[in-house]
Amino acid sequence: MRIELVKRKEHSQTMALLSPLIAVGLTALAAGIIFSITGHNPLIGLYKFFIEPLTQQWSLEATIDKATPLILIGCGLAVCYLSNNWNIGAEGQFVIGALFGSMLPVLFPEFENGATLPLMLIFGAVGGALWALIPALLKTRFNTNEILTSLMLVYVASLILDYLVRGPWRDPGGYNFPESRIFSDAATLPEIFDGAMSLSAPITVVIAIILAVVLAKTLKGFEIRVMGESPRAGSFAGFSAKRLTLFSFALAGALAGLAGTMEVSGALNQLLPSISPGYGFTAIIVAFLGRLNPIGIIIAGFVLALSYIGGEGVQSSMGVSNEIASVIQGMLLFFVLACDTLILYRIRMVSRRAPAGEASHV
Amino acid sequence: MVQQDRSGKDTLLDARGLTKRFGDILANDKVDLIINKGEIHALLGENGAGKSTLVKMFYGSLEPDGGEIIWDGAKVDIGNPAAARELGIGMVFQHFSLFEALNVVENIALALPNPGKMADLASRIETVSRDYGLPLNPTDIVADLPVGIRQRIEIVRCLLQEPQLIIMDEPTSVLTPQEADQLFLTLQRLAEEGCAVLYISHRLEEVKRICHHATILRHGQVVRECDPTKETPASLASMMVGADVASVSASEQKPQIGEVRLGLQDLSAPASTPFATALNKISLDLRAGEVVAIAGVAGNGQGELFDAISGEMPVATQMVQIDGTPCGSRNITWRRKKNAAFVPEERLGHGAVPGMKLSQNIVLTRHSTGDKLLTGGFVSNAQAGAMEQRIKQTYDVRMSHDDPEARSLSGGNLQKFVVGRELDRKPGVLVVNQPTWGVDAGAAALIRQALIDLARSGSAVLVISQDLDEIFEIADRIAVISRGYLSAAEPADDMTRERVGLLMAGGAETQEEVA
Amino acid sequence: MFEAVLLTVITAATPLLIAAIGELVVERSGVLNLGVEGMMIMGAVIGFAIANQTGSGTLGVIAAIIAGMAMSALFGFLVLVLVTNQVATGLALTILGIGLSGMIGEAYIGVPGLDLPELYIPGLSDIPFIGPVFFQQDAIVYMSFILVAVVAYGLFRTKLGLVLRAVGDNHGSAHALGYSVIRIRFAAILFGGACAGLAGAYMSLAYTPQWVENMTAGRGWIALALVVFSSWLPLRVVVGAYLFGAVSVLNLHAQAVELDIPSQLLSSLPYLATILVLVLISANRRLTLVNTPACLGKPFVPDR
Fold it and tell me: CA-to-CA distance for A282 and A329, rounded, in angstroms?
């Protein structure tokens, strides 16, 4: 018995829609098995993990809070991955963005007016973009592998954050705790709908929709898709791979930096030694689960946000380690990638004689 | 079709009813084939007729769905290439099965069941290769070798296995006429020694010259067998196609030559990678109304020259001129706006994006050429669709349903599309690299005629090709590229195949150095 | 003093060396497995857990190797059989490995670990200077020496190594000649997994004999960079690993001599050095293009 792939003549539109759903289904199945192995009722576990957070207002709000940065970062990463630029350093761009965005409230706490918040958001986006441009420039200038450099910069970024909140940016009236001063009201992202969500949520949705239109309808979107699938054809079309690398990294960095600023300005209200539960990495899963399509990413962002809240839920009510959330996230990405195979290939089970092309002398 | 009974005690390979299916396509349909000892047997057919599929089953890299193979009187089951080699079947691949990063000995050792010590093998390679007139240096790295030598490695690799049957897929497509003559001598010697050769070729002249027997495939079935020495290339061609092949009319109407539309002036460019070819002071004036062809063996700088003319590889401004405007440093979009158009050698992955629909692939080269495809940065799918319909009808691009993805088209249809996409603009300058490589005869004739018609309407057409038949069919002037040097373009009527062959083998370079 | 510094360098370099030499074999076969970090951390947690449960360091090491191989088998199935994108699948492996290790390791946080004993080799260990530095080490350090020798010899002096390099250079040709590209690559991936698992075991059983979440701290990624640095040559991996080992212990020794530099800067040195080294190597296009396995990261689907 052996699995054989038969290439389809064209992409299957049906499978493109179905594959994320199949992946989520398989992940739920695998998660159920893990619950059983660790001695818990799988049905209750799955309910608490995936469904219960949706039934209560506070957990629904928490889910939206977590989904927002994931969607924003995921959208930027989608542009990178579509154009074959492997930015896996969004976590670092998120952190540096947050640092840039926090410059005003931390270093100039007196600067309080209507411009404070917009300036912070702009600074955040610029900071994230600059940090992302480092691997992009190294790639275009020296042909350096962007996967490794963007990831190394994540470690560097968290060390910079650690240094600042323990050193120069520590709250002078904070009893030596490693944290910055609390942001003033002018530097705090307002909540809307009676505190149901932060302003960051609608900002994120608007950005995702704009990006969806750009990708589907414009020449820039066309360029991004062509370069990802066939760089040689892209250069034949007159597109520059190097410029697109800089563009996509800068865009992804800007969105991650914006997310970072909105996180410290809204959810945390100050800088701490750690400001992200791995959003930058989880957003990679969000981007793929959303099939690198901003609208799909909005949905995928919710699914992954649910896993954070669900993880806390099963920990407090069932005593399951909340690390199960990251296990489920990892499995989800595996299943998404495996199911995407169905878009380009049909799978055939073969049980016959030794396959062609097997050497006997190896 | 009545087939003469050729089986006898000299029969080496007897294939009976071989069938192979790929999805919905029947690639081989009950194929019968007999190869006798010491026979050079031609296997003819258009692209997609099923020749490669058939020989891959003989070599064990494909598994038949039906039928049987009798080898030397016994039924055999050739499960993999190693088993084929054990039986005494060797294969010289069209696109080679070599490893560029490895040296000659290593490449050969990989095909031998017991290569033994590398040093011993190296001396055996030297002896055998010299003995057959195909000398090789065992320690050379393949990446540094020209295609002609690479083919020698493949052949010597076969010879070291002391085969009874050698399968050769389009062996002369990468050789100069002189190198091909040397190959024919080797094949004749092998045949005299009792080794059989199964010879796949498009070049019917040479089939007539060296083959003893021919089997013709069409749509996966054997349609004819014949003695090629008693046929003409034209009669062989009509057997392959199943109808008379429309001939292209070039030289009947003498072109009205106008002013220079594409000028190359001392075009030089260093090799961009260790495996690329540097261009050396290439000069050429391409005038309105004419078709100029550049002949040459693959890998002598054709791709680099194309990239420099198209703008994918920028060079100094003065080196390339379109209608008198220097533009060597301009990008491809700028040159397209100056009414130049380009068709690269590789259809999928360069000329077209495999996974995108044809209408999207129109946007690829036409987005800035004033076809109303763009409004304020937004792409008009309606306009792209309309253009796709127009090109499909004008250039007879056949597809199973409307607007399919590029990769689902057959080679010939996709080539009609990528050429049609540019011809549709009526470009002033058209540069085509390998216009009919791997394209069936019908589509090739259509494309060649369209290129000539474009030139006669006042445009300048530059064709880069490895196919001498094609070049002599359509070119008004012929130049030859060799190791990045280009010979002067001379009127086609004054050129002979022998002269082109000498230039291909390096004469172009020396001519340049003397001049 | 110098001997002591050198000892810490070897300790810091060994996990990098083992993981990198495994990944080198994988990449030579034409596969890019970015999941080294994930396989390594799984090796660390499983090695620690089994050693802790059984009281046997040997069993711990074996379990770690098996864990690394199991993770790599998952990767191999996806990229070879289902032809998924190698970059994304490697990332998934790392994310999954970090999550799983956190879950498994929760019970072992703060539990005192088992330190692998130093093995004394009569003769070699007695050589002045060289003996104490290189030959009074634990078994995994010796295994790293052997691994390098075996890979360097095997890759360039045996038929198997030739086939492996051939598959990485041109999988189409290898397939045409009748080699099973998928089987050979799967074997290479398993070897890489075993090495990463062993490297992980060294982290939790020798380097710091305890389990700390995320304790590999990017070493899997640095190992990947080392393979690029070495331009796919085993002996250069040794040089790279020891250089990086030296950089990463700077922190330790700088604190000892009370230098007034923020510890965060010193901690970030290995990552900055990785970037610098990658830039220097890749700027030399001739070197990288010639040595990079031509099929690295490219999907292979045989026609049947």
Answer: 7
**Phi and psi of B194, rounded to 5°?**
100, 0
Q: Which of A148, A324, A338 sits opposite C224 (nearest CB)?
A: A148
- Say what the pTM is: 0.89
Unique residue bearing structure tokens 């199960």: A324
Q: Which of A142, A155, A333 sits opposite C95 (nearest CB)?
A: A333
Nearest CA in chain A to C225: A148
Flag whether residue A347 sits within 8 Å of chain B, measured between CB atoms. Answer: no
CA distance A185 to chain C (A): 32
pLDDT one-digit tens code per residue, B201-229: 878 888 889 999 999 998 889 998 999 99
Give the model confidence (pLDDT) of B390-421 as tens digits: 999 999 888 888 899 998 888 888 999 999 99
Full DSSP string of C84-105: --HHHHHHHHHHHHHHHHHHHH
Identify the DSSP state of B352: B
pLDDT category of residue B9 using cuts at 50, 70 and 90 = low
Instruction: Report the pLDDT value the prediction gives residue A352, as an integer from 0 to 100.
Output: 53
pLDDT of residue A356 exceeding 50: no
Tokens coding C134: 């290189």
Q: State ipTM.
A: 0.88
Three-state SS for C120? strand
Contacts of A254 (CB under 8 A, 6+ apart): A76, A97, A125, A126, A128, A129, A132
Q: What is the pLDDT of residues C66-92, one digit of tens each?
A: 999 999 999 999 999 999 999 999 999
Q: Which helix (H) or strand (E) holds B281?
A: strand B279-287
The answer, for A351 touching chain B at a CB cutoff of 8 Å, is no
How distant is the Cα of B272 from the closest Cα of chain C, in angstroms? Answer: 10
The answer to whether B70 and B76 have CB atoms below 8 angstroms apart is yes
* Contacts B154 to C, Cβ<8 Å: none
Strands B429-433 and B460-464: parallel
Average pLDDT of span B331-340: 95
Residue range A318-335: mean pLDDT, rounded: 88
Question: What pLDDT score was predicted for residue A362?
Answer: 33
Q: How many CB atoms lie within 10 A of CB B283?
A: 16
Contact with chain B for residue A9, Cβ under 8 A: yes
Binary contact (C294, B100; C-beta < 8 A): yes
Cα distance between residue C197 and residue C16, in whole Å: 12
Residues of A in contact with C106 (CB under 8 A): 321, 323
- B205 vs B226: CA distance, rounded Å: 15
| B509 pLDDT higher than 70 | no
Please name the member of A219, A225, A236 whose beta carbon is closest to the beta carbon of B351.
Answer: A236
Tokens (6 digits) for A81:
């991955």
Structure tokens at A14: 């049906």
Burial class (CB in 10 A: 0-12, 13-18, 19+), B47: middle
Length of chain B: 515
Radius of gyration of chain C (CA): 19
A80 CA: distance to closest CA in chain B (Å): 19
Confidence (pLDDT) at C221: 94
Residue C54 CA, chain-centre distance (Å), reads: 25
List of chain C residues whose C-beta atoms are within 8 Å of the C-beta of residue B85: 178
